[in-house]
Design brief:
Elements lengths: L9 E10 L26 E6 L3 E7 L8 E11 L20 H7 L29 E4 L13 E4 L14
Antiparallel strand pairs: 1-4, 1-6, 2-3, 3-4, 5-6
The protein binds a DNA duplex (13 and 13 nucleotides) through strand 2, strand 3 and helix 1.
Length: 171
DNA sequence: AAGAAGATTCGCT
DNA sequence: GCGAATCTTCTTA
């Protein structure tokens, strides 16, 4: 991931959640609306959602055009330019700066303007495969939802301290 | 037109 | 550990 504004910043995603077609917990479940239309774009487009009156959440669409599905980015490990990440002043701790979906969006300066942007090509935000090797991936139920709460659709890098959530889920 | 819910975080006890 | 902060979107009248 990178952003060109003040400087290029780079982070490695270490925690995600999947929201599938026909998944009652997914915003796309009710069908396409003005708010969730980005989830119905072809895979690789940003879906930015404003939640709890104070936080943005960054997702990528994950299916073919017309099918509603997405992946929520819940935590990322700062690799480069951490000092330019949003919130770096108040939370200089690399472990916390992009840990949790709200903090991740803040760190990457994600706002409504990025909603619908293609993440796979040139642009303000770029999503690509990991540069180096990845640790073992753990699985758990998703956090903070009430519907379909039992499905194991949260994925994280085991043992990575940047991963958010209660420790009992991170084993 | 009004009300409730929501993929969270932070500060205080 | 608990509750407030804060606002957009969708549902219901």
């Amino acid at each position: 991931m990178r952003k060109g504004k003040p400087r290029r910043i780079l982070a490695r995603i270490v925690e995600t959640e999947a929201y599938l077609p026909g998944d009652a917990a997914a915003h796309s479940f009710i069908g396409e609306t003005a708010r969730n239309r980005s989830l119905f774009l072809d895979r690789g487009h940003a879906y930015v959602y404003f939640c709890y009156g104070m936080h943005f959440m960054l997702n990528t669409s994950a299916e073919s055009h017309g099918v509603g599905a997405g992946v929520l980015f819940r935590a990322a490990e700062p690799l480069k330019g951490a000092e330019w990440m949003g919130g770096a002043g108040s939370a200089p701790d690399k472990r916390k700066i992009a840990s949790g979906p709200g903090r991740l969006a803040r760190a990457l300066h994600v706002g409504k303007r990025l909603d619908g942007v293609d993440l796979t090509g040139a642009g303000p935000l770029w999503l690509a495969a990991a540069l180096g090797p990845t640790g073992p991936v753990g699985t758990s139920v998703r956090i903070g939802i009430t519907k379909e709460a039992h499905r194991p659709l949260r994925f994280f890098e085991r043992g990575n301290p940047v991963v958010s959530g209660p420790r009992r889920l991170n084993q």
